Amino acid sequence: xxxxxxxxxxxxxxxxxxxxxxxxxxxxxxxxxxxxxxxxxxxxxxxxxxxxxxxxxxxxxxxxxxxxxxxxxxxxxxx
Length: 79
Description:
The chain has one domain (3-78). Helix content is 87%, strand content 0%. The chain contains 3 helices and no strands. 0% of the residues are buried. The model has no long low-confidence stretch (mean pLDDT 90).
């Protein structure tokens, strides 16, 4: 592992964070305006969100060491 690995993982974490924020906002919007979305649209949205969650789970599993090091560095920087 080197600094480039940590930087790459950091960017991916940021991207996933943005995606999860989007899915949260869209979920609220769909619930509030469900009459403008077809059942098929809602199902496709849920399938897409589920696919992203599965990708994130694999990402976490594949990058456990890098994520742990980032967690430790973050803790040391906050002290």
